[in-house]
Amino acid sequence: MGLRHFLTLDDLSPQELHQVIHRAIELKQLRKNGEINEQFKGKVLGMIFEKSSTRTRISFEAGMAQMGGHALFLSTRDTQLGRGEPIEDSARVMSRMVDIIMIRTFEHSIIQRFAEFSAVPVINALTDSYHPCQLLADMQTWVEYRGDISGKKVAWIGDGNNMCQSYMNAAECFDFTLNIACPEGFEPAAELLDRFSDRITLCRKPEEAAEGVDLVVTDVWASMGQEDEARERRKAFSDFQVTPALMDRAVDDALFMHCLPAHRGEEVSAEMMEDARCVVWDEAENRLHVQKALLEFLLNAR
Ligand code: CP
Ligand code: NVA
């Protein structure tokens, strides 16, 4: 099959995405049964982090260890990347030494340039524009709770950020419709609104977006790299909190997801985090299982 990357959900066909999710569910069960699977023995994952992480780092690192492989944590502070070594050179060097690489960085073009020069698969572990690994975990969580998401309605409440943009992408790959409620000036990229216009409705009121949907999703108001805008954003987003009352507008068996970390009192109320419809802990755990399935898919594709 040749070299495959996972920079956005578009890099896998819908059928391959479903295959990865079903394999994740299988791997999760095998782990619960105590079965040892060391198929990554001798394999090394390079993990480049230009931004902080709890879930992504732990899930990739633990996932590699559980499957007999090894993961290297490479912060830009301690590598020559932080001292200006070109992305293209770093990609050529690192990919001669490890079997697969994940990157969390700022501009999406950085990961695109890295992938262009990499001899091994590259995984997007979050850029300013997309967070496709989180979408795999979210879709796995949906499948586990409710089955097929095809034909369902999803509401995105809040910032038109990297998570929102991956949800737009997912709407097409997984065949659902998406209502996006965001304040003026915080919309996702115009080209994505245009590309996915047949599946997406842009609203200004969270109540309108949540009406009759099956899944409600939100994320922080200020993403990593936007710390300076946090005050201004708190003002702009003050009406965009997900609460049990907002969830009551959705269908009776609706679910609530959040990629975490959550800011209680901002994008989500403390009460909502304890609500029976909130599945964020399973969603977080599924990063582990689905990324193992993704690593397996990309390593076997070679
Ligand atoms: N959801 C997510 O990617 O979490 P981290 O920033 O902790 O990795
Ligand atoms: N939108 C958030 C997601 C964190 C997992 C950020 O980019 O900081």
Could you give a short description of this structure?
This protein has 302 residues and is an alpha/beta fold. It contains twelve helices and nine strands. A five-stranded parallel β-sheet has the order 7-6-5-8-9.
List keywords for this structure.
single chain, 302 residues, alpha/beta, Rossmann fold, four-stranded parallel β-sheet, 12 helices, 41% helix, globular, binds phosphoric acid mono(formamide)ester, binds norvaline
What does this structure look like?
With 302 residues, the chain is an alpha/beta fold. It has two domains: 9-130 and 284-301, 3-Layer(aba) Sandwich (Rossmann fold), CATH 3.40.50; 134-283, 3-Layer(aba) Sandwich (Rossmann fold), CATH 3.40.50. 41% of the residues lie in helices and 14% in strands. The protein has twelve helices and nine strands. Strand 5, helix 6 (162-173) and strand 6 (177-181) form a beta-alpha-beta unit. The longest helix has 21 residues, at 280-300. It starts with 13 loop residues before the first helix and ends with a helix. Bound molecules: phosphoric acid mono(formamide)ester and norvaline (NVA). Residues 126, 161-163, 219-220, 223-224, 259 line the site of norvaline (NVA). Residues 53-56, 126, 134, 259-260 line the site of phosphoric acid mono(formamide)ester.
